[in-house]
Amino acid sequence: MSRLIPALSTFRVMRINHRRLTIVGLVLLYGLHCLPAYACTTCNRPLQEAISGADFFGIFLKMMLPVLLLGLVIRFLYRLR
């Protein structure tokens, strides 16, 4: 029975360096803030026109089809349980 229970050294608590984590977070936020607004849908007129083109619903359906199929498969597998 004692072999089934892992030793306490297996469950070591990870020490977190909060100062390093804060610095990394600030660097990431500053880096994201400085990105150009090419992908901003409210600022970029050509992007707005490309998104709301005549083929919008076809592209949207192609993007959502894998998500819907995965949902149906998961629901089917859940019902088999």
Explain what this protein looks like in three dimensions:
The protein has one domain (8-80). The longest helix is centred in the C-terminal third of the chain and has 25 residues, at 56-80. It is flat and about 55 Å long. The chain is built from three helices and no strands. By secondary structure, the chain is mainly α. The chain has helices at residues 18-33, 45-51, 56-80.
Largest sheet: none
What's the total number of strands? 0
Q: What's the quaternary structure here?
A: single chain
List unreliable stretches of 5+ residues.
none
- What proportion strand? under 5%
- Give the overall average pLDDT: 76
**Terminal residue distance:** 32 Å
Count the helices. How many? 3
Q: Class by helix and strand content? A: mainly alpha
Fraction of helical residues: 55-70%
Structural shape: flat
State the domain count. 1
Rg of Cα set: 24 Å
Question: What string gives the helices and strands in order?
Answer: HHH
Question: Can you give me a brief rundown of this structure?
Answer:
By secondary structure, the protein is mainly α. It has one domain (8-80). It is 59% helix and 0% strand.
Question: Which terms summarize this structure?
Answer:
single chain, 81 residues, mainly alpha, 3 helices, 59% helix, flat
Chain-wise SSE layout:
Elements lengths: L17 H16 L11 H7 L4 H25 L1
